[in-house]
C-alpha cells in the first residue's frame, strides 16, 4: 500500500496513525468503502423485506470501521476468513457489490453462483476465503492458510475474523495455540459487538476483555475501539508487520456494536432501546471517521456528498444487475459437489 | 506392471505411498498426533520424520478439531496435506471441520475452490482398546456429499488408493482397519494408483455375492475357501470405496449369482449393508434375486473390552460360513 509523501506526513505529525500513513485519496476511498458497506447492507435488508432475497442475513451495520481498519493495511494477495456477519469484510477486501447482490439473489453471476448466499459470501480472487456459517469454523482454516504461506514462502498474511461468541468455541483455543507454537503469519480479529446472538459477553465469557486470552497463547493481545477507523488500522498495521517478520500471530479485540439484531428473527429483547440509540447516535463509525476527515481537512461537504451519491448509484446498479442476472438451472443442482473431472 | 513386487505390510505400503507422494510433490506434507519421532500410534509414519524433516512431518498438539481445520485451510490454499487421526474414533472431535467445512467448501463457493485434503483413520476393533478406540465410523462420513470415503483391504490397494487420494482434488477419507496394518501382501515398487470409486471382484463365483469391506474382505475370502469344499461357489466383491459407490459392479455380480450378502464390521443397522441392499432393491438386479438379502454386521452395542465379547461383537469367519450356507441352501 502506497503511503503519503514525507512532506505531507510531516505536516500531519500530530494526527492519528492513518492520517500520517495514508494519502488523502486513500482516506477518501476508505470513507467510500465504509459507505458502500453500510448502503449495501441497507439495500440487502430492503430487498429482503420486499421478498427479493430469501433465507436470512446477519448485518454488520455499525461495524464498518472494524472491517475497513483491518483490511486497509492488507496487501491484495493477503487472505481473510470471515464470519456469518461478513458482508463488510468482503467489501473491505475488495469485492464488487453487484456480484454480492447477485449472490444474495441466488443468481449465477454471484460470487458463489447462487450456492452460498449471504452466509458463505466469498471472493477468492481478492483473498476472501469465505464467510462461514459455523461460529469459529474459519479460525483453524485461517491458521491452515497461514501454514501454507509459511511452507510455500509466499509472504502472505492471513486474517481470521470472528465474533465474541467464537471466543468460547474450542476451535478458537486450538487454533490460537497452534498458530503460536508454529509462529504463523496470522492475525486473529475478534469483533466484539457485545452479544453472541442474545447472550452478552458478561454472561458468557470469563474474562473481561477477550484480548486477555492472548496471554494464554503467548501472543500480543490488543484492544482497540472498533468504531474508530484509525485505531483499528494502526493495530492491524502493527500485527501485519509482526506476522510478515515471522514473529507470529496477534489477537486484536475490536470493540464495536451491531445496530441491527443478530439476524432477521431477532426481536432485540436482550438489550435496551437506549443502548442501541446511544451507539447509533454517539458512536457511529462512519460519522466518527467523517468528522475526523473533515476536521483534519481531508474532505469537505461537497466531497462527502459526492461519495454518498456515487455509493447510491453503485448500490442501485448492483441491485439491477442482480435482478437481471439468470438463476442457475435446476439441472445444475449437483454441480460443484466434487471437482468436475475432465 | 514392470516394477519389482515385494511383500510389504499394509502399514509399510501406506508409509511408502506417503514417501512417494512427498518425493513427487513438495506440496504434500503430513500432520497428526505423534507421527514424528514416535512414528505414529501404529508406526505407519515410522521414520518418515528423519527422511523428510519436522517441517513436512508435523506433530500437532492433541487438537483434532483445530488440526483438521488447519489441514483443510492448508489444502484450500494450495498445499496437499495428509492428516492422520490417531484413532478413527477421534473423528468425532473434528466432525465440524470434516462435515461442515472440507465437504462443503467447494459447493458453497460455487466451484471457486477445492479442498484436496487426505485424512487417514485407523479404525476397527480387535485390539482390546474397548469402546472409544475401536469403532467403525466410515458410514458416518459416507453420508456426506462432498467427501470421498475409501476402505482399502490389501497392502496393494492401501498404497495405490492413498496415491490416488493424494492426486484427487477433493477431500478423501481413508479408513484403515488396525488389524490390517500387519497384513502382508505383494506391493510393486514406485508410483501406481488404484482408482477411487471402483470395486474389485476378489473371487469369482456363481452361487452368492458377498459384498465386503475392509478386514471383512479377507474374512469373506477365507469363508469362501471353506465353502468351496461344500460345493458352494462364492463371489467376493471388495467394495473398496463407499462414496462414491461402484454400483454397477455389485449389480452385475448379483445378476450373475442371484444372492446377496453384505459383510462389514460397523454396527449393522443404518450402514453400508443397508445402502448396498437398498441399492440392489432399487436396481434391475432385484428381479434376479432368488432369496432375501442378508446383512452381517456388527452388534448393536459399543465394542466391549473382554476379548471373547469383542470377537462376538463383529462378524467372524464361522459366522460368514454359516450365514452363506443358510442363504444358498434356502434355510433363511
Keywords:
heterodimer, A: 342 residues, alpha/beta, Rossmann fold, 5-stranded parallel β-sheet, 13 helices, B: 332 residues, 2 domains, 7-stranded mixed β-sheet, 5-stranded mixed β-sheet, 12 helices, 14 strands
Structure description:
The complex is a heterodimer of chains A (342) and B (332). Chain A has 342 residues and is α/β, with parallel strands linked by helices. Chain A has a single domain (21-325), classed as Thiamin diphosphate (ThDP)-binding fold, Pyr/PP domains (Rossmann fold, 3-Layer(aba) Sandwich), CATH 3.40.50.970. In chain A, 44% of the residues lie in helices and 9% in strands. Chain A has 13 helices and seven strands. In chain A, the strands form two sheets. In chain A, strands 1-2-3-7-6 form a five-stranded parallel sheet, sandwiched between helices. Chain A has a two-stranded antiparallel sheet with strand order 4-5. In chain A, strand 2 (158-163), helix 8 (170-181) and strand 3 form a beta-alpha-beta unit. In chain A, helix 3 packs across helix 13 (301-324). Chain A starts with 5 loop residues before the first helix and ends in an 18-residue tail after the last helix. Chain B is of the alpha/beta class. Chain B has two domains: 5-188, 3-Layer(aba) Sandwich (Rossmann fold), CATH 3.40.50.970; 200-329, Rossmann fold, CATH 3.40.50. Chain B is built from twelve helices and 14 strands. In chain B, the strands form three sheets. A seven-stranded mixed sheet of chain B has the order 3-2-4-5-7-6-12, with helices on both faces. In chain B, helix 1 (10-24) runs parallel beside helix 7, helix 3 packs parallel to helix 4 (91-102) and helix 8 (215-228) crosses helix 12. The model of chain B has no long low-confidence stretch (mean pLDDT 97). Classes of the chains: A alpha/beta (342), B alpha/beta (332). At the A-B interface, helix 7 and helix 8 of A face helix 3, helix 4 and helix 5 of B.
Amino acid at each position: 500500500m502506497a503511503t503519503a509523501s514525507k512532506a505531507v506526513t510531516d505536516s500531519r505529525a500530530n494526527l492519528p496513525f492513518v492520517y500520517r500513513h495514508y494519502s488523502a485519496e486513500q482516506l477518501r476511498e476508505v470513507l467510500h468503502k465504509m459507505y458502500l458497506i453500510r448502503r449495501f447492507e441497507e439495500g440487502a435488508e430492503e430487498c429482503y423485506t420486499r421478498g427479493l432475497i430469501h433465507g436470512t442475513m446477519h448485518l454488520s451495520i455499525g461495524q464498518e470501521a472494524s472491517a475497513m481498519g483491518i483490511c486497509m493495511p492488507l496487501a491484495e494477495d493477503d487472505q481473510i476468513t470471515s464470519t456469518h456477519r461478513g458482508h463488510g469484510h468482503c467489501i473491505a477486501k475488495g469485492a464488487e457489490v453487484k456480484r454480492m447482490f447477485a449472490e444474495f439473489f441466488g443468481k449465477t453471476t454471484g460470487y458463489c453462483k447462487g450456492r452460498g448466499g449471504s452466509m458463505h459470501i466469498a471472493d477468492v480472487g481478492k483473498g476472501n476465503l469465505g464467510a462461514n456459517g459455523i461460529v469459529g469454523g474459519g479460525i483453524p482454516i485461517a491458521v491452515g492458510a497461514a501454514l501454507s504461506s509459511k511452507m510455500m514462502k509466499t509472504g502472505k498474511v492471513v486474517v481470521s475474523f470472528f465474533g465474541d461468541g467464537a471466543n468460547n468455541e474450542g476451535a478458537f483455543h486450538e487454533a490460537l495455540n497452534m498458530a503460536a507454537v508454529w509462529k504463523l503469519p496470522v492475525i486473529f480479529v475478534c469483533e466484539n459487538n457485545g452479544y453472541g446472538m442474545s447472550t452478552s459477553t458478561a454472561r458468557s465469557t470469563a474474562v473481561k476483555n477477550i484480548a486477555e486470552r492472548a496471554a494464554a497463547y503467548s501472543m500480543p493481545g490488543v484492544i482497540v475501539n472498533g468504531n474508530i477507523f484509525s485505531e483499528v488500522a494502526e493495530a492491524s498495521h502493527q500485527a501485519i508487520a509482526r506476522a510478515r517478520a515471522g514473529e507470529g500471530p496477534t489477537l486484536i479485540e475490536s470493540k464495536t456494536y451491531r445496530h441491527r439484531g443478530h439476524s432477521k428473527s431477532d426481536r432485540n429483547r436482550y438489550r435496551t432501546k437506549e443502548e442501541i440509540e446511544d451507539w447509533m447516535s454517539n458512536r457511529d463509525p462512519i460519522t466518527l471517521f467523517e468528522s475526523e476527515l473533515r476536521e483534519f481537512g481531508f474532505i469537505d461537504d461537497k466531497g462527502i456528498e459526492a461519495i454518498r451519491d456515487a455509493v447510491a448509484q453503485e448500490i442501485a446498479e448492483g441491485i439491477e444487475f442482480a435482478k437481471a442476472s439468470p438463476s442457475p438451472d435446476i439441472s445444475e443442482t449437483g454441480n460443484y459437489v466434487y471437482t468436475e473431472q475432465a | 506392471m514392470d516394477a519389482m513386487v515385494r511383500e510389504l505390510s499394509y502399514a509399510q505400503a501406506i508409509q511408502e505411498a506417503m514417501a512417494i507422494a512427498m518425493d513427487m510433490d513438495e506440496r504434500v506434507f503430513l500432520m497428526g498426533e505423534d507421527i514424528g519421532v514416535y512414528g505414529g500410534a501404529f508406526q505407519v509414519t515410522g521414520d518418515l520424520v528423519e527422511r523428510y524433516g519436522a517441517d513436512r512431518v508435523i506433530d500437532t498438539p492433541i487438537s483434532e478439531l483445530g488440526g483438521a481445520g488447519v489441514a483443510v485451510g492448508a489444502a484450500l490454499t494450495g498445499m496437499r496435506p495428509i492428516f492422520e487421526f490417531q484413532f478413527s474414533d477421534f473423528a468425532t472431535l473434528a466432525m465440524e471441520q470434516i462435515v461442515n467445512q472440507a465437504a462443503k467448501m467447494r459447493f458453497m463457493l460455487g466451484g471457486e475452490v477445492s479442498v484436496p485434503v487426505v485424512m487417514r483413520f485407523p479404525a476397527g476393533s480387535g485390539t482390546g482398546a474397548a469402546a472409544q478406540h475401536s469403532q467403525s465410523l466410515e458410514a458416518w462420513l459416507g453420508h456426506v456429499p462432498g467427501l470421498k470415503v475409501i476402505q482399502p483391504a490389501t497392502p496393494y490397494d492401501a498404497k495405490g488408493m492413498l496415491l490416488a487420494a493424494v492426486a484427487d482434488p477433493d477431500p478423501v477419507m481413508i479408513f484403515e482397519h488396525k488389524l490390517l496394518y500387519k497384513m502382508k501382501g505383494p506391493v510393486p515398487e514406485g508410483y501406481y494408483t488404484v482408482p477411487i470409486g471402483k470395486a474389485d471382484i476378489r473371487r469369482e463365483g456363481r452361487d452368492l455375492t458377498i459384498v465386503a469391506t475392509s478386514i471383512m474382505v479377507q474374512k469373506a475370502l477365507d469363508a469362501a475357501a471353506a465353502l468351496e469344499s461344500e460345493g458352494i461357489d462364492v463371489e467376493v466383491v471388495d467394495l473398496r470405496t463407499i462414496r462414491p459407490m461402484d454400483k454397477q459392479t455389485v449389480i452385475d455380480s448379483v445378476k450373475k449369482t442371484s444372492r446377496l450378502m453384505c459383510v462389514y464390521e460397523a454396527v449393522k443397522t443404518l450402514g453400508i449393508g443397508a445402502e448396498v441392499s437398498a441399492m440392489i432393491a432399487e436396481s434391475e438386479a432385484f428381479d434376479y434375486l432368488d432369496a432375501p438379502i442378508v446383512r452381517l454386521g456388527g452388534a448393536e452395542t459399543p465394542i466391549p473390552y473382554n476379548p471373547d465379547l469383542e470377537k462376538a461383537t463383529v462378524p467372524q469367519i464361522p459366522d460368514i460360513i454359516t450365514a452363506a450356507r443358510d442363504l444358498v441352501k434356502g434355510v433363511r
